[in-house]
Amino acid sequence: MTAGTRNTAIGYGAGIIAGMSYGTNPLFARPLLDHGVTVPTMLFFRYVMAMAFMALLMLFRGESFRVRKDQIPYMILLGLLFSMSSILLFVSYEYIPSGLATTLVYLYPVFTALIMVLLKEYPDWKVWLSILVTFTGVVILCMPSSGVVLDTLGMLLAAASALSYALYLIIIGRSRRISDISAHTMTFYSLGVGSVIFFSLRMSAGGNMLEGLSGFSVWSNFIGLALVPTMISLLSLSLSTKRIGATKTSVLGVFEPLTAIFIGTAVFGEPLTSNIVAGALICICAVVFMVANPRRHAAAFSSHR
Predict the structure, then answer these.
(1) Using one digit for the tens of pLDDT, what is the confidence trace for 151-199?
(2) CA 293 – CA 287 distance, rounded (Å)
(3) Is residue 86 within 8 Å of 194, Cβ to Cβ?
(4) For the chain, percent helix, then strand, then coil, each to nearest 5?
(5) How many Cα atoms sit within 13 Å of 151 on the Cβ side?
(6) What dihedral angle (degrees, nearest 10) is formed by the CA atoms of 220, 221, 224, 225?
(7) What's the total number of domains in the chain?
(8) What is the DSSP string of 203-236?
(9) Tens-digit pLDDT profile for residues 232-289
(10) 51, 134, 177, 178 — which has fewest CB within 10 A?
């Protein structure tokens, strides 16, 4: 095996790991929700732990934490969007199957393309076709079958999560003012802003934040959230992007909803109707077709989670 082939194989493997690891969000979040842990509490500990792990990584690699004063507002805005994407997704788990929620979040490239139109950057016909097919898939997803009625609020929350993430990526991709900030530094501050937001939300509800947070299973799930769908996903994503590029890495993100659907069905016994299967497959194929289509702004569809 040549060095080039080895690098490519590593890149594809890392991309698959990135998608699968992010798809494990429900594996750690659902038990915490069932235990009575509130979403702000869960995300606060996830973000704080992930921020600590990221800080250690950056110190080990000698990366800079420094940002200029004129970049601080951007860091706050990115942190707000990053946090909104997380909290909307996790709240949606309380209304719809986690696999379905993750599938809807995977539609963020569609929202990105639509927002780019507002910025007067028009996609080609292949992207419009993908958007039309994706809309068809979502309609099928929303149709009840086998006695299973999907909650509209849950689907809207998951879609709003995708929209927040699309805005996050567009700001990163288009803002020249923050172009010199590394992905790790940007993620560190996004996690920091999110930690403050979730801490404030939890404190506004009153009571002791640590109340009820006892037992090995609770803290192991917190650590799992911070490590697997956060740090492992981020590091694998970075490695994959360097080896095979942002576009191919984004396509491998298809393993994210597939993993979440498998976990939801196999571990938590969530319903898997024919409409969910058909709609999810249509949406996934449409997004893969769109992301795999070479274009000038392909980098805007890469992931920074």
Answers:
(1) 889 999 999 999 998 898 888 878 889 988 888 898 899 999 999 999 9
(2) 10
(3) yes
(4) 75, 0, 25
(5) 13
(6) -150
(7) 1
(8) HHT-S-TTTT--SHHHHHHHHHHHIIIIIIHHHH
(9) 998 898 888 888 876 677 778 888 888 998 999 899 998 888 888 888 899 888 888 8
(10) 177
